[in-house]
Amino acid sequence: MHRIHPSNPLAPAATKYRSDIDGLRAIAVLAVVIFHGFPNFIGSGFIGVDIFFVISGFLISNIVLENLQNDTFSFVDFYSRRIKRIFPSLAVVLISCLVFGWFALLADELNQLGKHTAAGASFISNLVLWSEAGYFDNSAETKPLLHLWSLGIEEQFYIVWPLLLWLTWRSKFSLIFMIAIGATLSFVLSVKGVKVDPTATFYSPQTRFWELMVGSLLAWISAYSMNLNFLNRNNLPKERWLELVKKASNLSSNLGLLLLVYGFWKIEKSFSFPGQWALIPVLGAALIILGGPSAWVNRTILSNKLLVWVGLVSFPLYLWHWPILSYGRIIYNETPSVEFRLIAVCSSFLLAWLTLKIVEKPFRFGPMRNHVKVTILCGCIVVIGLAGFAISRSDLSTSHTYEQLLVKRKAFKQRFGFSDAWYKGKADWLFLGNSFERTVDKLELVTVPDSSMIDESNQNIINVAKKAAEFNTQVALLVGPNKSSVYSEYLPDDIIPSKKRYLNFFLDPLRQTPNLIVYDPTEDLIAFKKTEGILYWMTDTHWNNKGAFLAYQGFSKLLGTPSPMVDFINSTPRSGDLIGIAKLNNFPLHPEDNWDIVWKNTLSLTEQEIPDEQKSTMGSATIVTNKKPLSDKYIWVVGDSFTEALKPFINATFKEVRYLGHWHKLKDLPLALTQATRKPDMIIVIRVERSF
């Protein structure tokens, strides 16, 4: 057993219990729990997961490297220990979530919970959540097992890393070289990936493994640098040398603590993460661990009994806290009260302690034979995973309607049907449900935005308009109306739209903003639908080509710019995005809602991707050049999915159009404008009504 060498307090002990690491675990889990429960209190608490990754990489690699040194390493022993550590608490939480979800969730919500349960049981939650990410992904707060993505990353690391260490050891290749190369490659992928595809980079194992490998590097230092006397080239007296080493230990730990404090203060949810920003919590945690248990911070702060206790229950606490908060969000149909969240967090601590005492410890340290424990735990996880998979594939539309739920929702307006994601209107019209930005609540005006919400939503575009005015660049906002606002006659009788629109709380102050033109085509589209046919796809959330053109035509008149000459002919039936959301089979489709564009003039367009621009739900950033433009203006466009049907008309009008991605980039546009060598003549912002 490796212990701290008297001349090297910096080196972590390989197998000796370190209470300071449990204290560091406590810092990590408390940051995450507080961030989830009270995000306004600590908006960067999510970096606690990155601290966990470093700790896990350190501890796991320590075990493997020491056993390799002693020629006692066994894959069976390693994985049986992992199973006994992880499976008991995980099984209890997965079962609890499924049971409660059976009585509290609508059909499609329960289907998704079943899928996430199966993913959690097979440790691929990160990959499943990555595959779900997109324009119509439901809110993260309504996924009770969302937090298992990090467990997926860790378990995938546990599968790959021991094998790599073993192969490197057997081949007598340099362990430190292998670890350094692996960590560097993963980090480079993370830094590059976060600029192009931040969602993939967040969930992908290859862009996260470097964080665990930093912990592995610490383990290598522990195993192979047990004596720092070789650095004492001046042959200082032992007492003087030990004093210098002690100072270095404290310096390392203090710097680590300062980095964590800086990370918690500086990093925000809006940052491109992980990427280079993840270096702050990762290096902070690494330096604290490197400081060793004798460093002042480690022995005084992190070894505090209360922090150590929190660290000991950190794993079940992490598993319990999010499902409770998430179910609260689902039941209350909004962020729960502070009182509820306090109760939820306190309940999580209690459940974590009970889980550790009643479930985890008996399986880890109880008298039952090891192979029996492992068999029982593996069997339980397999059964839970299969149950989740079966639920995900089941038709629950008749058994889990709102009327049948035993756990009723609070302030919930869509009190019908078996889905909160969509609903069927009259005459084969489908509409987006309340789970997407509370569209039904806003339509009926059962919720009213306060001034802070309005200011927060409007501020970015106001900032753009102000900065653009300095360069004589016009800014214009085009709203994509919700289908329910234009075709309210096809809504179910249960839904009665308010005469006053939620949207206008935001547009009224924006209309007073200098250098900003605002166009809401709702009234124009309502008038046009009487003579121009169907302007939205009946099974989609968006306007069709004809509806988009009529909106663009009105927008162009307001801007004083030309619009292209086109005709429209009815096309073949089209299956819209609501068919996919609702998972409907053989639903009636109508050709009269789909229009093909007939151009009266020949277009000459070229399109190319903008290199190193971040992808969004709109796809890659692009530049479109028109050799036969109606206007010589150079345009920037930021928007959302309502932009897609407008693109042909924008491209046909202007000489050059730069599509920068989603309107979330508005916050970056003032700086982009300042730095641009060529300023745009106009910035067009396209934003769907429900996003306000």
Describe the structure.
With 692 residues, the protein is α/β, with parallel strands linked by helices. It has 2 domains: 25-226 and 252-390, no CATH class; 432-691, no CATH class. It is 54% helix and 9% strand. It has helices at residues 19-37, 48-69, 75-104, 107-121, 125-132, 148-170, 175-196, 198-203, 209-224, 238-266, 279-291, 296-302, 305-312, 314-332, 338-365, 370-392, 439-444, 451-469, 483-486, 504-510, 522-532, 545-559, 577-582, 643-653, 669-675, and strands at residues 422-424, 430-432, 474-480, 516-519, 566-570, 595-599, 605-609, 622-626, 631-639, 654-662, 682-688. The strands form 3 sheets. Strands 4-3-11-9-10-8-7 form a 7-stranded mixed β-sheet, with helices on both faces. A two-stranded antiparallel ribbon has the order 1-2. Helix 1 crosses helix 13 (305-312), helix 10 (238-266) packs antiparallel against helix 11 (279-291) and helix 18 (451-469) runs parallel beside helix 20. It comes from Polynucleobacter kasalickyi. Keywords: Acyltransferase, Alginate biosynthesis, Hydrolase, Membrane, Periplasm, Signal, Transferase, Transmembrane, Transmembrane helix. Pfam families: Acyl_transf_3, ALGX.
Number of domains: 2
Helix percentage range: 40-55%
The helix-and-strand class reads alpha/beta
Q: Compute the number of helices.
A: 25
